[in-house]
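Each lists chain and fold; for instance:
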Amino acid sequence: MPFQRLNNFLSKFSQALSSRSKASEDRISKILKEIFPSGRFTAKIKNKTLIVSASATYQNELFLKREEILEKLREELGTGSPREISFRIL
């Protein structure tokens, strides 16, 4: 019986974390769209690192503006903001 309660708790905790992560990813995508309105990319957070998949052209632009992007993310997300940006080619 105690294991079922623990399982329910862990399930609810996992759902709360994933919904918070999804909300953060949505806000990050919004910020990136403000900087690159015509850009095509995907963004996700993993271990305090923002992983952006984009074309090589956008990766260069993102690399040049990474400090600006990280600053905006800190303002928007606070302590839960990514500390680094990693790039992947689409």
